[in-house]
C-alpha cells in the first residue's frame, strides 16, 4: 500500500498528461450538467448530456492509448468521473423521471443502479491486468447509462404515456444492475484489428449504418444499446455447448490420468 502511494506521489511530481484528462473532465462536466437538467425537470436534455458524457469517456481512453499517455492518475480519475457521470447522473434521472411516485422504493431502486455501477468499476480496476483485453466482464457502466438515456429519449420520441415508463424503468434498473455485476462478457472495442485495413464491404456497411442512424437517430440508438446490453446474455448461452464439451474433455482426461 505504501509503495503504491509513493509511486503515485512520484508520478504527480513529474506532472500529469493534460489531453486525456481533459476528455475525462469533459465527461464529468457532461454528467454533472445532466444532473442539473434533471433537477430542472428537463429530462430529455439530461438524457442527451449523459450520452455526450459517454462519447467523452470513450475518447479519453483511446486518446491515452494512441498518444501513449496512459497513467495511474488517469485511470483513477476516469473511474471517479464514471461514478458521477454514469452512476449518479442516470440514477437521479431515472428517479426524477419515473420512480419518484414510488417514494422510498423508487430512490432505493435508483440507488441499486448506482451501487452496482460502482461495484462494476471497482471490479474492473482490480481485474484490469488479469482479464482478456477484448472483453469486459459485466456490462460496462457507460453502456448501462447510455441504455437509460436511450430509453428516456425513445419515450419522448413516441410520446408514450407516463404509466408505461414506471414499469419500463423499474424492469430496466434491475436488469442493468444485474448485468453490471454479472460475469457475462461484452465486447470492448479495444481490438487493434479494428483500425487496420478492412474489406471494402465493411466501409459500405458502415456508411449504410450511418445513414440509417441519421434517418432515425433516437430509434437506432436505442436498438444499438439494446442489442449491446443483451449481447452478453446471448453470447453466454451460445457458448454453453462449447463449454460443456470442454468440461467433458477435461473430466475424461482427468479420469484417464487417475487410471
Describe the structure.
The chain is an all-alpha fold. The chain has a single domain, classed as Four Helix Bundle (Hemerythrin (Met), subunit A) (Up-down Bundle). The protein has 10 helices and 2 strands; from the N terminus they run αααααβααβααα. The protein has helices at 2-14, 18-39, 43-67, 72-99, 104-127, 141-158, 162-181, 200-215, 217-238, 240-258, and strands at 135-137, 185-187. A two-stranded antiparallel ribbon has the order 1-2. The model has no long low-confidence stretch (mean pLDDT 83).
Strand arrangement across the biggest beta sheet: 1-2
| Shape, principal axes of CA atoms | globular
Number of strands: 2
Tell me about the largest β-sheet. Answer: 2 strands, antiparallel
User: Which CATH architecture?
Assistant: Up-down Bundle
* Class of secondary structure makeup: mainly alpha
What is the H-and-E element order? HHHHHEHHEHHH
Radius of gyration: 21 Å
Q: Could you name the CATH topology? A: Four Helix Bundle (Hemerythrin (Met), subunit A)
What's the number of structural domains? 1
Cα end-to-end separation = 47 Å
> Counting H and I runs of at least 4 residues, what is the number of helices?
10
Global mean pLDDT: 83
The stretches of 5 or more residues where confidence is low (pLDDT under 50) are none
Oligomer: single chain
Organism: Geobacter sulfurreducens (strain ATCC 51573 / DSM 12127 / PCA)
Enzyme class: transferase
Family: Belongs to the CDP-alcohol phosphatidyltransferase class-I family.
GO biological process, one term: phospholipid biosynthetic process
Amino acid at each position: 500500500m505504501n509503495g503504491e502511494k509513493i509511486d503515485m506521489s512520484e508520478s504527480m511530481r513529474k506532472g500529469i498528461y493534460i489531453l486525456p484528462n481533459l476528455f475525462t473532465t469533459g465527461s464529468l462536466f457532461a454528467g454533472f450538467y445532466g444532473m442539473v437538467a434533471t433537477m430542472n425537470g428537463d429530462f430529455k436534455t439530461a438524457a442527451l448530456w449523459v450520452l455526450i458524457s459517454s462519447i467523452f469517456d470513450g475518447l479519453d481512453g483511446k486518446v491515452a492509448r494512441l498518444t501513449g499517455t496512459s497513467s495511474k492518475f488517469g485511470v483513477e480519475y476516469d473511474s471517479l468521473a464514471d461514478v458521477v457521470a454514469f452512476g449518479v447522473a442516470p440514477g437521479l434521472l431515472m428517479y426524477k423521471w419515473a420512480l419518484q411516485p414510488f417514494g422510498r422504493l423508487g430512490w432505493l431502486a435508483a440507488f441499486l443502479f448506482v451501487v452496482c455501477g460502482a461495484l462494476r468499476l471497482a471490479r474492473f480496476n482490480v481485474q484490469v491486468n488479469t482479464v482478456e483485453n477484448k472483453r469486459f466482464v459485466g456490462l460496462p457502466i457507460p453502456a448501462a447509462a447510455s441504455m437509460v438515456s436511450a430509453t428516456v429519449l425513445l419515450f419522448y420520441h413516441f410520446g408514450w404515456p407516463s404509466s408505461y415508463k414506471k414499469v419500463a424503468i423499474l424492469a430496466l434498473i434491475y436488469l442493468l444492475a444485474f448485468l453490471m455485476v454479472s460475469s457475462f462478457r461484452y465486447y470492448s472495442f479495444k481490438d487493434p484489428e479494428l483500425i487496420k485495413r478492412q474489406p471494402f464491404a465493411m466501409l459500405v456497411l458502415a456508411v449504410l449504418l450511418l445513414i440509417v442512424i441519421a434517418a432515425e437517430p433516437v430509434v437506432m440508438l436505442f436498438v444499438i444499446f439494446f442489442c449491446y446490453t443483451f449481447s452478453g446474455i446471448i453470447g453466454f448461452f451460445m457458448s454453453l455447448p462449447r463449454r460443456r464439451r470442454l468440461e467433458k474433455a477435461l473430466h475424461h482426461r482427468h479420469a484417464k490420468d487417475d487410471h
